[in-house]
Amino acid sequence: MVSSDKTISIKRTTLTSSLSLPTLPFDLIPEILSRLPVKSLLQFRCVCKSWKSLISDSKFAKKHLTLSTMHTLHCISYRHNVHVLLKSYSLDYVLTNITQTQFPSSDSNVLLVGSCNGIIFLVSDGKDLVQLQLWNPSIRKFKELPPISKPHRFAGIYGFGYDPISDNYKVVVVSSDLTRGDFNKNELKVHTLGTDSWKSVSEFPFAIVYAQPLGQYVSGTINWLVFMGIKRFIASFDLGNECYREVLLPDDSVQVYKNKLSLSVLRDCLCMISGEDVWVMKEYGNKESWTKLFTISYMLDPRASSYSYIKAGYVLDEQVLLTYKEDKRWGHISYNYKDDTSKFIELENFPKVCVESLISPCF
Prior knowledge:
globular; 6 helices
């Protein structure tokens, strides 16, 4: 009986040994994991302590960001003027609703300003305060910034982006007290993540007379489209040096469509839509690098024959999401500028594209 037990034990040991999986080199594990979707990585934190430590590390999060190819389209959904959730859509060949996430704030007056490296920036304009929040919906991390008090008559423009010099993220608010009647005196404040206060940089040297209050992040700068009299230009704020400059528009774009200009970002380049013409600045800050990519067809949406306002939302391969306004109606179109075809898309409010990442706003 004893001998029989030993025989069974030996056979089991031999079988287990023959089915054991090969061990991966330790250096290869981060290379594999950094190429996976965020959802899978959040699950893999439960595999073992070493994987949890690796996936939670900030250096790994940065590496994952450089390799991330997953992009999601976010827009805020309202019901009876009460904000309830964030709707997210995949950016495949066909836009498909994939998730609906409960918003971490109860405020119903929320504006989705934009995103940077997986973090979306939201502003709530209250009666006496402006509330600002950062949220990475991929990892469910939420950060509420110190509120900003506002006068009775208030105008503000906003921006959010990554400062490569300090290796940190900054939120920018330019505010104007309209009760003073002086549109040229505007205060610019900067909040750096990890601090608990706002820093007043200086007066914003441009009047808050603009086409778009939401700044576009490109190459470590926040960019606003500014109208000052007959002059049209881009006001650029460098997040690292915290200084201003003017970025000039292509001459052809301003001459024909002085009041039909829209600023956006395509493939990490500053983009200008002038009427139906789409321009990109291939070398940031160099006016001579403005290049016209294509002209948008008038018959994008069969229900409309002309458009008073068009702006770009995202670009993926040859597909560009365009938001247009005809009379008082807003709509969204997926436009292929290679073969000049388009498709009308039902989306709520104004969507923002966001890359999936492990970057946390909670510094």
